[in-house]
Amino acid sequence: MEAGTNLIGGQPFSLENAMEVKKICAKHNLRTILDASLLADNLYFIKSREEQCKNMSIREITAKLSECFDIIYFSARKISSARGGGICIRNEEDFLKMRELVTLYEGFLTYGGMSIKEIEAMTVGFEDTMDETVISQGPMFIEEGVRLLLKNNIPVVTPAGGLGIHVNCSKFVPHIPQAEYPSGAVAAALFIISGIRGMERGTMSEDRHQNGDEKLADMELLRLAVPRRVFTLSHIKYAVDRLMWLYENRDLIGGLRFTDEPKMLRFFFGRLEPIGDWQEKLVEKFKEDFRGSL
Ligand SMILES: *Cc1c(COP(=O)(O)O)cnc(C)c1O
Predict the structure, then answer these.
(1) Which tens digits make up the pLDDT trace of 33-79?
(2) Which of 32, 152, 226, 255 is the most buried (most CB within 10 A)?
(3) pLDDT value of residue 122
(4) Protein residue with its CA nearest to atom 4 in ligand 1
(5) Ligand 1: does its nearest atom lie under 6 Å from the Cβ of 78?
(6) Cβ of 200 less than 6 Å from ligand 1
(7) Residue ranges in 74-181 assigned as alpha helix (H)
(8) Count of other CB atoms within 10 angstroms of residue 34
């Protein structure tokens, strides 16, 4: 299970979900594994939405949730503001199996892949994650951003989740076919007119079918992630303001095509170009509307 699922708008699962999954897996002798990288947001949602957790502390919820999993892994970049990550293993047999892989991929177990300094920073980050006033900030900013976007009729995933604001690009630019990467196009357009760097979460993030055809994504989203401890509310308002302008001028946005499309992780490593000269027209209109005011 992935706490706060990336590809569906950062939506959380409940403690009750996790307990049910654990029950089913135990019955069929299956291991349960948690990707806890984005757990902070999910903990906040469990605490604020789930009846049985209203009177539990974040620490108690974390402990209860942990009981549902045999293995918990995380990117420390996300959950504890440190460099690195970790794999927590309950069962010794699993540990011994993974120990061999550590030697293969990182070095002998006692070399220590991460420095003590980094592990100390991770510990502080975990303590912060147990503080509701810390972990509530991202979801609250996202909720406010989503509220403002909805007020202005801009299509966005609801209810507001964790991780970021997710703009629904199938509705933002319905004139762009999926094979021309509408979410990627909106990401490029928004960057040009605002400097805001969003992330395509749509067809470009899929791998092609084996025969080379595009695998069209179920959802075309632009993710505007809200990193921890970085943003203020005025950043969110700026993003909303620019999205409003872009939405008014959405007909100017056109498609993209790959000029360099690697087989693996094309959404990270690939290069694209606009189809036609829509980017120039967009900039022209932007300058016309804002002139020298920027
Ligand atoms: C970012 C992320 C990862 C990968 O993290 P790295 O620090 O790049 O290894 C894994 N799972 C989830 C849910 C993530 O958001």
Answers:
(1) 999 999 999 999 999 999 999 999 999 999 999 999 999 999 999 99
(2) 226
(3) 95
(4) 75
(5) yes
(6) no
(7) 76-79, 92-105, 116-129, 132-135, 137-151, 169-172
(8) 23
d(CA 161, CA 144): 11
Report how far residue 186's alpha carbon sits from residue 221's, in angstroms, rounded to the nearest whole number.
9
Distance CA 184, CA 176 (A): 11
* Chain length of the chain: 294
Instruction: Write the CA distances from 287 to 186, 237, 283, 293, integer angstroms.
Output: 18, 21, 6, 9
Q: How far apart are CA 61 and CA 55, in angstroms?
A: 10
CB atoms within 10 A of CB 141: 19
- Which of these, 128, 116, 146, 117, lies nearest to 223 by C-alpha position? 146
Indicate the pTM of the whole model.
0.89
> Ligand 1 mean position to 76 CA, how many Å?
8
Neighbours of 15 (CB within 10 A): 20
Got the DSSP string for 41-52? HHHHHHHHH-GG
State if residue 81 touches ligand 1 by the CB under 6 angstroms criterion. no
CA of 249 to the centre of ligand 1 (A): 34
Whether the per-residue pLDDT at 141 is higher than 80: the answer is yes
Both structure tokens of 264:
């693996």
Residue 294 pLDDT class (50, 70, 90 cuts): low
Specify the amino acid at residue 277. D
Distance (angstroms) between ligand 1 centre and the Cα of 201 equals 15
Question: Counting atoms of ligand 1 from 1, which one is nearest the CA of 3?
Answer: 13
